Each structure stands twice: as C-alpha cells, then as structure tokens.
Amino acid sequence: MRDTYNTPLNSRYASKEMSYLFSDDMKFKTWRKLWVALAEGERLLGVNITEAQVEELRSFEDNVNYEVAEAKEKEIRHDVMSHVYAYGVQCPSAKGIIHLGATSCYVGDNTDLIVMKKALLLIKNKLINVIGKSSKFASKYKDLPTLGFTHLQPAQLTTVGKRATLWIQDLVMDLENLDFVIDKMKLRGVKGTTGTQASFMNLFNDDEEKVKNLDKYVANEMGFENTYPVTGQTYSRKLDSIILNTLSEIAQSAYKFSNDLRLLQSMKEVEEPFEKSQIGSSAMAYKRNPMRSERISALSRYIIVNSLNPAITAATQWFERTLDDSANKRISVAEAFLALDGVLNLYINVSGNMVVYEKVIAVHVNNELPFMATENILMEAVKRGGDRQELHESIRVHSMAAARRVKEEGLNNDLIERIINDNSFKMSKEEILAVIDPIKFTGRAPGQVVEFIEEYVNPILDANKDALDVETAINV
C-alpha cells in the first residue's frame, strides 16, 4: 500500500523470516496452538473434553478464518474473544471448551514469549555467522601490520587481523549473554486472571497437582521446559527489559564495528563492499560512501535507545498488571528485533566482503613507524659501542626536523633517511631497515589472533555448524 505508512523495518531492513515471526498470522496461529495444548492437557487430566473435540480444534489450527474474527471484533471490541468465536465457528463441537479457564494473557503473553524465543534463536544464528565471517577475515590478515590508534592518534602497531578480534570478542560476549537469556526463558503457562490459578483450581476441584501438571504440560507442548513459578496477570515485564538489553548489547557491538570501518574507509585502508553499479553520491560521482556501515550505525542507535522502553514499562507496572504496557510493548519489542535483524543482515554482508588496501596501510605505517622505531634503533646502536646520550640527542634533533617536514611542508617522513646518513649510529642502511621491519613492532598480535580463534571462536563455530552459511539479502 502506497497511501499509508509502511515501516521501513519490513520493506528495507528486516528479513522475511523475522518479519513473519511478528506477523498477525504467526500470532493467531500460535494462539490456536495454545488453545489446542490447553484443551488436550485438560482432557488428559480428567476434564470432560473428548478426543474428538481436541482433534477438531487441531484440524483448524493453521486455518484461521480471519474475516469472521475481524467482523466479530468490530462488534465486541475484544481481539481474543473474537478469535475464540471464529475458532468456534469452524469447530462447532469444540466451541464450548475453547479457552476453558483461561484469561486473555494465556494466549497473549505465552505467544509473545514463544515468538521472542524463536526470534532470539534467529538472532543467534546470524550472530554466529558474523563471528564466522569475521574470524576468517582476522585469520587472513593476522600478520598484516597496521597503525594502532589510541585517542584516534597513531600508537603502537597492531595487525589488521588483531583489530578484527576486538570486534569478534565483543560478539562472543554478546553470544554468551544471549545463550544465557535463551536458556533461562520460561513460558507464562496456565496462571489465570491474577496469577493465582483460581479458575483452574475450580476446574479441577481444588486438586493443586493437576493444576501444576497442566501448567507443565502446556509448557512442554510449546517447547519450554518450565513456566515462571509466579506471575501476576502477565509474566514479569522485566523479562522484556532483559531481552531488549541483550539486543542492545549486540547493537552496541555492531555500532562499534561500523564506526571503526567508517573511519578505516575514510583513510582508504579498508572498505565495505561496493556494488558495480552502486552510486555513492548524487552529486559527487567519484565517492564511495560507507552506506551499509552507516546503516548499521543508524539502526543500532535506534535499538539502543529503544531498549529504554521496556525498562520504563517494567518499572511502572502496578501490582498484578496495568495495560499501559500493551501499546508500547507491541511496538518496542517487535521493532527492536526487526531492526537488529536488519543490522545483522548488513553485518554478515559487510564482514564477509571487506576490501583491504595493503599498500595504503603500508604507506600509513611507514609514515609513522620511524618515530616509533627510534628506541629500537637507539638500543641497537648502543650495542655497537655508541653513546646513548649522544645518540638520543641526535634522534631528538632528527625527529624534530622530520616532524617539521611532515607537518609544515607536507612532505614525507624522512627520519630514517636522516639516521641512515648519520655515521654516529654505525649502522648500514640494510641493518637499520631490518630493525624497523613493521612486523617486529606488532608484539604478539599474530599469535593472539591464532590463539583466540582456536581457543574461543572455533569451539563456537564447531558447536553451531548447522547455523553457518546463512543466506541474507540486502534490499537497498
């Protein structure tokens, strides 16, 4: 539809898989699965429900008569009861036992939990793929010296691969937290209007064990080991805050990566993929703007800010439940997942196709390395009988002259040439150049990459082989 607002999260950023999870079709079909599980559980525990009634419900589980439900909702203004009515139209023999003993949150909250868990698993798969592609990049460039930066000022050398491990380590931490949240998630279960299970106690003639068994049965049927032991009318809204904080943490990692890449692209050292016919600027045809990295930054910022919504909701729920959560929740939770899905689609694409310009990196290294290498040259010259204090003064004078040449005259750094031509150092050109080989200034960076990948990353990838090589599409 072109005449009403359509969220760009669907049309431009998120995958069809993630969009479907938060669709009405997913929601209402899950409602029906929950009603089937409830009826079957009640039947098995002795309620007067026949197997034929349950089978009738099951036969229409995925065939929602939306027109009937929508017409009824216009009349009674209640979405759950409209769908109970529509289900009953299809299942006349079972209509009297649909939603038996339950409140609206039985389908609403449990569905939200089921959808969020599926969405978290989809996020996990994509996160693992980013880790996998980034680790290949790190391994490939583990030995390539590059300028390290502190305060965005040139510092000791690192390697391109070592820098990539910093991105990966953030993602590994995110994955650990994500696994924890997924493992700890529970279903709301069968709790009744205020969480006391009073209606189910009445249904089972005050048999608490049957009520607890029904709660457990529904959880297992819906793919959960357990339910939350206590609830109000809803599961604790603190869970939404925990989940969106987890999404925010992943977005923070992606944001950091995208900012680093944008800086590297401005330095012409590393670029994101650029399509053959892609236009970087409408005015400046030569430009190759880091559009995908910028989009990662933009969407990540949205996710981080959005994570405040469920935090405030959790803090302001009164007693057993207030409804000021609902309108906010249906927007903030869904959009956080859709936006992060878009971020990870981009991250997978970019991390697997980055272009490295080794000669540009070497030029930048060679412009700064002479200053960093003077201590090594000084030590080597002293070993050959030179006077440390005199050589230190010579280096200071040469360094000042070279810096003046670079900053004031815009010329190249000739510090090494000056030292080579200074006989007091008693070193040949070849000997000095050997001392300042960039790889000698990267410390344990190459070894750290190998150890990190082998000890921390490969076990993750080996344990999640089925999740690797996921296909992602970039729509724009």
Q: Kindly state the mean pLDDT as a whole number?
A: 93
How far from one another are the termini?
A: 19 Å
CATH superfamily of the domain at 360-441: Fumarase/aspartase (C-terminal domain)
Find the count of extended strands (DSSP E, 2+ residues). Answer: 4
Number of helices: 19
Major beta sheet summary: 2 strands, antiparallel
Report strand %. under 5%
Computed Rg: 31 Å
Widest sheet, order of strands: 1-2
* CATH topology-level fold name of the domain at 360-441: Ribonucleotide Reductase Protein R1, domain 1
Give me the secondary-structure category. mainly alpha
**CATH C-level label of the domain at 360-441:** Mainly Alpha
Helical content band: 55-70%
CATH architecture of the domain at 360-441: Orthogonal Bundle
Series of H and E elements: HHHHHHHEEHHHHEHHHEHHHHH
Q: Any idea what the shape is?
A: elongated
Q: Spans with pLDDT under 50 lasting ≥5 residues?
A: 281-286
Structure description:
The chain is 64% helix and 4% strand. It is mostly helical and 476 residues long. It has a domain at 360-441: Ribonucleotide Reductase Protein R1, domain 1 (Orthogonal Bundle). Helix 7 packs parallel to helix 14, helix 8 runs parallel beside helix 19 (445-463) and helix 11 runs antiparallel to helix 12 (291-306). 40% of the residues are buried.
Q: Which key phrases capture this entry?
A:
476 residues, mainly alpha, Ribonucleotide Reductase Protein R1, domain 1, two-stranded antiparallel ribbon
